[in-house]
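Feature request disguised as a bug: please show the residue count (341) next to alcohol dehydrogenase in the output. Example input:
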Amino acid sequence: MKAVRFFGHKDVRVVNDIERPVPKGDEVLLKIGGAGVCHSDLHIIDEGTVVGTVFTLGHENAGWIEEVGENVEGYKKGDAVLVYGPWGCGHCKPCQQSKENYCDHQSEQAYGGGLGLDGGMADYMLVPSSRLLVPIYDLDPVIAAPLTDAALTPYSAIKRSLPKLMADEYVVVIGVGGLGHVALQILREISGAEIIACDVTENKLAFAKELGAAYVINSKDADAAEQIQKITGIKKAKVVLDFVGATSTIDLGTKVVSLDGDLTIVGLGGGHYQYSMNGLPFGVSMTNPYWGSRTELMEVVGLARQKKIHIEIEKHRLDDANEVYDRMRQGKIKGRAVLVP
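Example output, currently without the count:
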């Protein structure tokens, strides 16, 4: 079968000679409908965050069950499903709470398909346990694949701050990319706070307005923080969601977050923050959440089935993977790219 394989630093190749896996036990073989292309892939490819192993890329995966192992119950051939991305041990307390993204044994094992183990940029994908599947019912797997990260990650980040996202508050979203554009829709649907969106390109700011942002600010502007504070007034923003994570965006967040607010850094931009006593307003929680729980992914599927969120996608062939990654490096992807076998 065909697959997009990572062979080492900046070495990604499309190969055609991978043997199709055969599931056993609780394993499930998935015929891939779509595999999302995530900016996290570039950290693997360009920065070498995963070393010493060759594997198939793709951690945002959806498709139809092709074959199941002898111990699988509750699923049959043809069922449309998502693959929950972070694969924990399945036994520790966080895993038992459906939070495999925070598995106690994360440091001891490869962390999931496309992240050290074989992922879904291929004709077929072997999922190690049926517990990692989430049914999508009538959703198209091609469109649904990015829900597993591009929607789950912002949903989980927003949900932890939901009690603060009241109608008399402001929320700032920095970065209107693959995750940020979904965050705007989620905020529009489940919170009452007024939304201020920040990005460095005018087309993405226009996109943010379409998706429900009440205000848009170009974060390249030297006075971006002052522009935001003119909107929020002295109270500032109760929640800031940074989907970039660069030093400049973290700095912007510290300037506009309110007393007792949440500054949530989701993006993996490699930024730094030098803590000082007076650097943040009192009571601020600065967090860096990772992905979300499997039950939260079920909730995300519910939002998508109700048509309350929609991921803007571009469809591409597996053979075009390297071209897609180049476009992602240049910031030319609108929404999410999905590879379709």
